Amino acid sequence: MLLREAKLYIKCFYVLFEEKRYGIEKQSDMKSSILYNQFRYIAFLISFAVISISLIGCGSLLPSSGPSSEQVQNAPRSKRMKDIMVVEINEEVIGRQVQVQNQKFFSETFDGSNQPGVVIGCGDVVEVSVWEVPPALFGESFATQRTGSPSAHMTTFPEQMVGNDGTIKIPFAGQVPVAGRTLRQVETEIRRRLKGKANQPQVLVRMVSNNTSNVTVVGEVATSVRMPLTSKKERLLDALAAAGGVTQKVNRMTVQLTRGDKVRAMPLDMIIRDPKQNIVLMPDDVVTLLFQPLSFTALGATSKNEEVDFEAKGISLAQALARVGGLQDSRADPHGVFIFRFEDAQVLDFSEEKQHDLSREKVPVVYRMNLKDPATFFIAQHFKVQDKDVLYVSNAPSADFQKFLNMVVSVAYPIHNVINK
Question: What is the three-class DSSP state of 149?
């Protein structure tokens, strides 16, 4: 509407120019010529002012790559953005982010230090051997063998699969419960049951086929396998080696470990560099190697607007800014560096009122950083960029004003040329 009125004013001025010019052309004195020039420039200035006021009133017509810093700050007050928080990046935010990240470490989530070793389960195949001093309880009717000493006999019983009831059968010992026990515990139980029946019995239980204490390794590996666990207490990297290693670059791989109802993921190179994360595996663990290229998107007054891939271990905000060539000196507002993210709710320090409204796993958040403060560059080295983040840098007010002036001049200059004719 304002632009339409501006055009109408300019048209009126053209009519006045023509009338004034026609009247002055009939006069030849110097005074009339000076009056004409004054009128011409006054009309030009009035036209310039009208167009300026029109464009200022229609600020949304100015070209822009996104909202200004002030618009982002005031956005949560609008109805569409009422649930979105704008959070200043500071030491407190970094501390909460690090705390939540530490909770995702394998060493903090999974505890395999108390694992008793190989535990027998239903479906496993075991072999039991008994040594005894003559006279032997188990005679020639069993598979016996002399040990080289005339005073000892060894009897090896046929291999047995642990039944659904979790037991195996040993002559003179009965149904021996073995499911959920280690090999040493089963040996002790059989020896106790044979005491008083066999002559100084010694028992050895051997796992022939481990069908239950296995770890499954799948994903981006050379060969998906089910790796049996032994008393060695295999670890994550042992499972990876058993599968033939990964098929992608190590710094692009993520290891996901599923144990019961717990699922955690960590970068592979972090597990390699930190021995504490190379945890002991337990039966029925599922190790999944994932190749998921992580990326963030840079928009606004950065040197490059593009989607940027980064390593599985993550990068800092300082590194992210460097990878897009930093801020544009001629456009960027250093007060308006923003990260748009769906954040874990536990990272944010909600008030009790907002906790009720935002009781979700992921919460939309806009992180803001002021690069005019030198201390911010230290904070930027510790703030981690996450997958699918949007890095946005707003235009400086002076840049918008410069664009406004360019538009005004582009409109007013042709008018000036017409007046000078």
Answer: coil
Last residue of a domain, one of 181, 209, 237: 209
Structural domains of the chain, count: 4
404 lies in some domain: no
Instruction: Compute CA 253 distance to the chain's CA centroid, rounded to the nearest angstrom.
Output: 13
- State residue 354's pLDDT score: 46
Mapping DSSP to helix (H, G, I), strand (E, B) and coil, where does residue 269 land?
helix
Whose tokens are 């005339």? That residue is 150
Model confidence pLDDT, tens digit, residues 203-227: 999 989 888 888 999 999 999 999 9
- The 3-class SS string of 374-392 reads CCHHHHHCCCEECCCCEEE
Helices (H), 103-235: 106-109, 183-194
Q: How far apart are CA 383 and CA 316, in angstroms?
A: 5
Measured CA to CA, the distance from residue 198 to residue 272 in angstroms comes to 52
Residues 6+ apart with CB under 8 A from 172: 137, 193, 194, 197, 198
What is the tens place of the pLDDT at every residue in 286-328?
A: 999 999 788 999 999 999 999 999 988 889 999 999 999 999 8
Amino acid at 37: N
Which of these, 169, 172, 168, lies nearest to 181 by C-alpha position? 168
Residue 387 shares a structural domain with residue 305: yes
- C-alpha distances (whole Å) from 213 to each of 55, 205, 217, 238 are 74, 16, 13, 15
Q: Residue 118 and residue 122: Cα distance in Å, rounded?
A: 13
179 to 50, 192, 261: CA distances (angstroms)? 91, 17, 23
In the chain the first and final C-alpha atoms are separated, in Å, by 30
Domain range for residue 47? 2-61
DSSP characters over 300-366: ESBS--SEEEE-TT-EEHHHHHHHTT-B-TTTEEEEEEEEEEEEEGGGS---HHHHHHT-SSEEEEE
In 67-224, beta strands by DSSP E: 85-88, 125-132, 144-146, 153-156, 160-161, 167-170, 174-177, 202-209, 214-219
Among 60, 82, 64, 56, which residue's Cα sits nearest to residue 394? Answer: 64
